[in-house]
Amino acid sequence: MKRTIKDLVNLKGKVVLLRVDFNVPLDEGGKILDATRIKNELPTIRFLTSKGARVVILSHLGRPNGYDVRKSLWPISIYLSKNLKCGVSFSPTVLGEETRERIKLLKDGNVLLLENVRFYKEEEECDMKFAREIASMGDIFVNDAFGTAHRKHATTYGLARLLPNAIGFLMEKELTNLDTILNNPKRPFVVVLGGSKVGTKVKILERFIEKADTILIGGAMAYTFLKAKGFDVGASKVDDENIEVATNVLNKASELGKKILLPIDHVCIKGKDPHPIVATNLRGNMVGYDIGPRTVKYYAKEIDGAGEIFWNGPVGMYENSNFRNGTRSIAEAIAISKAHSSAGGGDTVAMINLFNLGKKFNYLSTGGGATLEYLEEGTLPAIEVIQEKIQ
Ligand code: 3PG
Description:
Layout: E1 15-19, H1 36-39, H2 42-50, E2 54-58, H3 74-83, E3 88-91, H4 97-105, E4 111-114, H5 121-125, H6 128-135, E5 140-143, H7 154-162, E6 165-167, H8 169-183, E7 189-193, H9 202-211, E8 214-217, H10 221-228, H11 243-255, E9 259-261, E10 266-270, E11 277-279, E12 286-291, H12 293-304, E13 308-312, H13 325-336, E14 340-343, H14 346-354, E15 363-364, H15 369-377, H16 381-384
Parallel strand pairs: 1-2, 1-5, 2-4, 3-4, 5-6, 7-8, 7-13, 8-9, 13-14, 14-15
Antiparallel strand pairs: 10-11, 10-12
Helix pairs in contact: 6-7, 9-11, 9-15, 10-11, 12-13
């Protein structure tokens, strides 16, 4: 068990460097389009400020190449001011005298948000000189940036090597939930996996073949599996390089007595005709874009009988409303099931929220790549480096 902020004592007057993941979508004018990650961070900030800590927040936003006003964290400091009762200020720099001065001026229980750490190339290089300079401004490091914990960067990994440290509430919740899925799932454990490329999902598939009872496959990935099984998929998108990988996954599942289910019908487009049709078999110039209504029923039955459900990846090309029904129906089936349900992955969670079904899930992970990597590896670089709890 990792040390958490509850294990920290005498926080009053201490400068806590808190790494969070405020990588949220903003529009051109800096309006926050989805504040979920920020909302989920508030309990940790409130806990630290209630103990009298001086909280200095570090985050990245996007993948900027040097300074980029569109990737500034300034709009997030406005959000924090509106949603926290304590004083919130913003520093347009991460390093330098000006930042040090602002930290000196911080009162107990107040918050200072620093500018985007990725404006400095040293962040992603995990430059320890850069990390040491930041560490010298604080007393304790708290990592609550689960969504970025798969990155070995200066403020996710480097700082933990330099300061006494702990994880925050958001990170703790993520780990508890994901560890339960990995080590103690309710049975039957049903996993819904979508997305386009088999190659990017191989590790997680292998992991779930061991842990889950049934895997329901959707998205373009399904066509690669269907082709691997010898079905005609027409002109559907196939990840040809990974047909053999798909065959191996199917063979391993059957050796272990696990079920991998594939779509039995499709919503598809035939040639240049723009109108989608439903087909049981794809052939010729037919391109599948979503699971069909019989597949929805077939998958919903498995979901209904599940004890535990984990979902990653839309099961169709949901960006186009003609091909969104499969993903919506899966979300609805999970929402009404009695199983313990979780979902992870940026697109998946965004879809669930778009359907207004977020509250019907037991857990929605704030991570995208981090969630998948944690499920694959059982740990992440920025978590590994955090001190263990003293029992
Ligand atoms: C995410 O949104 O998945 C995290 O913030 C990590 O972002 P990155 O993929 O740019 O490192």
